[in-house]
Design brief:
Distance between the termini: 60 Å
Radius of gyration: 26 Å
Strand order of the largest sheet: 4-3-2-1-8
Strand content: 5-15%
Helix content: 40-55%
Length: 673
């Protein structure tokens, strides 16, 4: 089915309680207003013209993108932005339904009437045809050949001031927000790329100190540099991110001299609100950077009424070799570097940077921030040695930068995942909130803590606020979907999971997470759909040598034999082949535990839980389905086992149990006979 663009109305209409103004690319409900990217509005119009019928993905691509040649990824992003905008303006609801393997449909009624025309006229809406904004323009259009790009996200105040889910914390108010896209280097030299992207990271952090300024997370902003991602011009990007201002510029090296230009641009009309040039003859990169931040924040203060000069820091000279390693580490550890060995190379580069400059605070911050995320990953081949080194690194970073919110976020994550020292977690989270309440990493950390202590709705509120500053972070969206599955909210969870499966929006390992969520759903059709996806994934796993597979991957056949087919005999045979005494399950136990506990000897399983806790793996990742929660709780023989009671009698777990009971979430806690 294809709906002709010429037949689409440009007259205002209503979807549920949301007024749609096609001529202005606008959604409105009361005081809530959201501008849409033109292509996103086109998707909405095609769905509305279908009158509640299903519109296939290919039909949407052909009708909206036409000869421009859209992609599955572009369509998925447009639908995601549209859902977010409708929920933002009209309140949480299910406006667009994903029909697996088919397409999408509007699931709320559409109203067109004279009253709506009058309301639109009163609000100044003009139903004249909308200009089409091409999305396939050159990747770095509107930038100089040696350009650097910095995009400002301004105007998300109404978004973040909407009430969060029941029980969630009130959002901190801000009057503008800024996103910094990666600087494009002038040359093709790898060192210049490291410098350009590293400088971007530094500006993102420095601007986060400006009062009342929200700063978009690098995960979303750096997605515009990924190979194959259409960039378009500044106004198109601003519309895609739902923002009102953009800062763009260029960076150029000539010998030891660095020249940076920047300008603040209003997305709505392309007006250059401010521009400036900074140049330094050599060295002194941080001094140059601080001057740029000061000028940008001055412009923000003058034109957008946010604080001035707060992002600047005392200038300091850094050994050029250390600086080069630092920028290389940031780049290799970033989302743009997904090749094998990038993590090891990036971590090694940061270690070299602090080896040359022991007081290089920014390098220590990057080192510990990444180290905490990898405490249960491939970098931690010798777990005990890695954790010991990480403790020393955290202490050094805190000594050098006690007023940097990222240090406190890293400490909070470490003490939650490794020590389960809830007092220290809360102490560092409170300090991070004081320093940077609007930073996405602060919000993510607060969400993880709320989830850990048994406040799931409050946790989801924090994640929702973080994703408003990080809307293109697919891994975070998956984490939220998995949590919804744990809470038994499968319909909401699989809106993302099914679409990601269909479009391959994440790497292949995503299938194991989605398939586990399907097991939790208990829905026959959902399980059948994901069982087929897992079977294809397992075929690929078969080609990987057993010695190269994480222990948790070896558990997948048994896990899904129980979850999909209920074949206890097959699962028991597979489990019997594994040496749990010498190689216990310690990574991602929450993912597999709820099924394996059904077939493993209770003694063996409880011993595995104890080992996982002792190694600091039990709560180590937000991507795993959390143990002890909701649909993922363990069977009664485990919950009643004396060793399970002994595990929860440990001081840290006893305190966690107390908090969960206080918060009304006793699921998974020990039960008496």
């Amino acid at each position: 089915m294809a709906v002709q663009h010429a037949e689409r109305t440009s007259r205002p209409f209503r979807i549920g309680n949301v007024l749609v103004s096609p001529g202005l690319n606008r959604l409105t409900y009361g005081e809530h207003i959201r501008q849409l990217e033109p292509r996103v509005m086109d998707v909405l119009l095609v769905l509305s013209d279908a009158g509640g019928e299903v519109v296939g993905r290919q039909d949407l691509l052909e009708e909206v993108w036409g000869e421009d040649g859209g992609s599955d990824e572009g369509l998925s992003r447009a639908v995601s932005l549209l859902r977010s905008a409708l929920n933002e303006v009209g309140g949480e609801g299910r406006y667009i339904e994903t029909i697996p393997r088919r397409g999408y449909r509007l699931s709320v009624p559409i109203e067109e009437s004279a009253e709506i025309d009058n309301e639109a006229a009163a609000s100044g809406d003009n139903p004249s045809p909308r200009p089409r904004v091409p999305m396939d323009q050159p990747r770095w259009l509107a930038l100089t050949a040696f350009g650097m790009a910095v995009i400002a996200l301004v105007g998300a105040l109404l978004w973040l001031q909407r009430p969060g889910p029941s029980g969630s914390a009130e959002p901190a108010a801000y009057t503008a927000s800024v996103a910094v896209l990666p600087f494009e280097p002038f040359s093709n030299e790898e060192s210049d790329r490291f410098f350009s992207y590293g400088l971007t990271e530094e500006l993102i952090h420095a601007l986060s100190a400006v009062p009342k300024l929200g700063v978009a997370a690098r995960t979303s902003t750096f997605s515009f540099m990924d190979e194959g991602t259409p960039r378009g011009d500044v106004r198109t990007i601003g519309q895609a991110l739902g923002v009102s201002h953009v800062v763009e510029g260029s960076v150029r090296r000539e010998g030891e001299t660095v020249r940076v230009t920047a300008q603040l641009i209003r997305v709505s009309d392309g007006l250059h609100v401010w521009s400036g040039v900074e140049e330094h003859p050599g060295g002194g990169i941080f001094e140059l950077q601080d001057r740029i931040v000061e000028e940008v924040s001055r412009a923000l203060q003058l034109h957008l009424e946010v604080g001035y000069g707060e992002g600047t820091r005392p200038a300091r000279e850094i050994d050029p070799r250390a600086l080069a390693f630092y920028y290389e580490g940031l780049h290799r550890l970033g989302s743009a570097m997904r090749r094998d060995g990038a993590a090891e190379d990036g971590y090694g580069a940061l270690r070299s940077a602090v080896g040359i400059e022991p007081d290089f605070a920014e390098a220590w911050i990057a080192l510990v921030s990444f180290g905490v995320r990898w405490a249960s990953g491939p970098l931690a081949k010798d777990k005990d040695a890695f954790i010991g080194q990480l403790r020393e690194d955290l202490a050094q970073a805190l000594r050098l930068a006690p007023n940097d919110h990222r240090i406190h976020v890293a400490h909070a994550q470490f003490h939650a995942a490794v020590d389960l020292d809830l007092d220290r977690v809360k102490q560092h989270l409170d300090r991070a909130e004081e320093l940077a309440p609007l930073a996405s990493d602060t919000l993510y950390a607060q969400g993880y803590y709320a989830w850990l202590v048994g406040e799931p709705e409050r946790a989801l509120g924090f994640y929702e606020k973080a994703l408003r500053l990080d809307p293109l972070n697919l891994s975070a969206q998956m984490s939220v979907a998995l949590k919804l599955a744990v809470l038994g909210r499968g319909e909401e969870a699989f809106e993302f999971l099914d679409e990601c499966l269909e479009t391959a929006c994440l790497e292949e390992g995503f299938v194991a997470y989605g398939a586990s969520a399907a097991v939790l759903s208990g829905d026959r059709r959902t399980k059948a759909r994901w069982a087929a996806a897992y079977a294809a994934f397992e075929e690929k796993l078969a080609s990987i040598p057993a010695s190269a597979k994480p222990h948790s991957v070896r558990l997948l056949p048994a896990h899904f034999a129980i979850g999909f087919e209920g074949e206890g005999e097959t699962a028991r045979r597979l489990l019997a082949e594994m040496d749990f005494e010498n190689h216990p399950i310690t990574d991602h136990i929450g993912m597999w535990g709820m099924t394996l506990a059904q077939e493993m000897p209770t003694e063996t399983f409880v011993a595995t839980l104890t080992k996982a806790y002792e190694r600091g793996d039990l709560f180590s990742t937000q991507l795993s389905l959390s143990p002890f929660y909701g649909a993922a709780s363990y069977p009664e023989p485990v919950l009643k086992h004396p060793a399970y009671h002994q595990l929860w009698a440990r001081p840290e777990l006893a305190k966690l149990a107390e908090l969960r009971r206080q918060n009304g979430w006793p699921d998974g806690l020990p039960v008496s006979e």
